[in-house]
Fold this protein.
Amino acid sequence: MLDIKWIRENPEALDAALAKRGAAAQAQSLIVLDEARRSHVSSLQALQERRNFASKEIGKAMAAKDQATADTLKTEVATIKDELQAGEAKERELDEALKHALSVLPNIPLDEVPVGADESENVEVRKVGDKPDLGFKPKEHYELGEALGLMDFERAAKMSGSRFTILTGALARLERALGQFMLDLHTGEHGYTEVNPPLMVNDAAAYGTDKLPKFGDDLFRTTDGRWLIPTAEVPLTYMAAGEIIDEVDLPKRYVAQTACFRSEAGSAGRDTRGMLRQHQFTKVELVSVTTPETSMAEHERMTASAEAVLKRLGLPFRTIVLCTGDMGFGAQKTYDIEVWMPGQDAYREISSCSVCGDFQGRRMNARCRKAGDKATRFVHTLNGSGVAVGRALIAVMENYQNADGSITVPDALRAYMGGLTKIEKAV
């Protein structure tokens, strides 16, 4: 969430930033809402001051045995009390209107972010690894998985509907191996603390991590009002909510492997074959909570941590910086890492690493304080996939496929596969 004080002082900067995102100017309408709220609060304060004064005058009138004046003042105090009650209700309405208007306002892109309308204007930063020369026409992951008898979409659809998959045997183990490998890498070499968080959160957690109200349609809700997490970013980031953290204890780095749940609203017709875009999928998520001074360096560090996964697996990839029109709602800057998928003859996103500034810190009132200081400031937060496990499975299958339909297990995963070197058709 953006600071209304900053918006009042920098209306042109806000509208210019929104224009970069392809959004309409909103500074003036926000200022009007804020002025109405501030004016109303001032009138309530004046009423309260008059009530306090009149209450004191009642005592003086009673001491002077001036009953008529006392009765007049009592009537005035009673009237003011009613006006204050109505005014407080109005204040809550004005507060809520401003809060809602701010809550649907996207974050301000950093100046270095390329301006563009959509993904066609993203900018490649680097490309790592050579595309494999397989020597035959590569198959897509679902063709490989079904032929191996280890990937079942029909049975999944029978019990759950579309966009679900059942993995069995060696493919199920390969997905588990990928997640374990990533967790070990991030905790053992990259300094992240492993967390096993809840998979359901309340409104406050979803709002504090900018998923509500903007993305309510993208989430699944339980019958008792909780939300299934779309990513572990939500519970990992919200661990800092309402806290004041000593800056010497920052950054805090967390990693979790969880199931993630998304309705995929607006994705009708996209990636309907296979398991690239699912309602339920597994992801290893990285979250950092930092000081304002260190968040940009932390962004580079997090992106490098995600890239290290693909390097260890021997998967070709490219890293791009998203343009303003393709960047996520809460991000100031985002790197997408796209892994090469031979079966699709395309690079596809496998990780998205974003720095959010104090956008989430402000929403969830997460602050930090320097030693010896009384003043606090909002923390900066970052999140990134480290990486999407299901998509890593797809990438391994397609890059390590053999002409006979078998899949070679990458060296980095063999210890997690009990020494298995090749996945072949189930007998």
